[in-house]
Amino acid sequence: MMDVHMPEMDGMTATRKIRNGEAGKNNQKIPIIALTAYAMSEDKKQIMDSGMSNFLTKPVNFDRLKGVLEKTESVQIEEDRDGNRHLILDYATSLEYFNNDKKLLKDLYLKFIDGEGERMAKINYNWSTNKLEELMFSVHKLKGAASMLGANNLYLRLSSLEKKLSESNVDLQLLSEERDKMEQCFNRTVEEMNKVIESF
């Protein structure tokens, strides 16, 4: 998410630089959602022309946020690197979304680690037993939790996996590598959450 109005460099300028590769080649196509207090028709055009993927007006409504994230085109995520830690867990945006309530965010991270860890185990079980309907349900629920807590890479990987699982005559064996990468991303996300929890 990118605030349109920021000191020193506005969000549209920052987005153009990202699209031009100034933030690294791997980040050029990453989805960028504009955050703005207002959006007249000409503002929307300027926002989209700058290279942003979509936009949200403040204050952010959760249902609207969820809808925009679901509509925003996903991209192929390269292997996570330490330089892209903010893509693994966007702590700052999540904290702002929850009105800077660190205790609430800590509790949500702990709930995610415990509850979604069990869901990850269910995904692996349903995968190994070829229970496609239950598998898709678990992937969808985990995707929703990742979206709410700013786990960007995990959300994108789950979105991609969910889309492929919904295709007709899906072969789970052919998707095993993608499943493994998603699980690695999940583990990296949990690591980052634990680091944030320890810093409180």
Secondary structure elements and pairings:
Elements: E1 2-3, H1 11-19, E2 33-36, H2 41-49, E3 54-57, H3 62-71, H4 85-88, H5 91-97, H6 102-128, H7 132-148, H8 152-165, H9 176-199
Parallel strand pairs: 1-2, 2-3
Describe the structure.
The protein is mainly α. The chain has 2 domains: 1-73, Rossmann fold (3-Layer(aba) Sandwich); 88-200, Four Helix Bundle (Hemerythrin (Met), subunit A). 60% of the residues lie in helices and 5% in strands. The protein is built from 9 helices and 3 strands. Helix 6 packs antiparallel against helix 7 (132-148), helix 6 (102-128) runs antiparallel to helix 9 (176-199) and helix 8 (152-165) runs antiparallel to helix 9 (176-199). The radius of gyration is 17 Å and the shape is globular. Residues 75-85 have low confidence and may be disordered.
Number of strands: 3
Could you tell me how far the N terminus lies from the C terminus, measured between alpha carbons in angstroms?
A: 23 Å
| Oligomeric form | single chain
How many helix segments? 9
- Encode the helix/strand succession as letters: EHEHEHHHHHHH
The CATH topology of the largest domain corresponds to Four Helix Bundle (Hemerythrin (Met), subunit A)
Which stretches are poorly predicted, pLDDT < 50 over at least 5 residues?
A: 75-85
**Given this structure, which CATH class of the largest domain is correct?**
Mainly Alpha
Q: Which architecture of the largest domain would the CATH scheme give at its second level?
A: Up-down Bundle
Strand content: 5-15%
Strand order of the largest sheet: 1-2-3
Helical proportion, percent range: 55-70%
Tell me the Rg in angstroms. 17 Å
Count the domains. 2
The major β-sheet equals: 3 strands, parallel
Mean pLDDT comes to: 81
Shape designation: globular
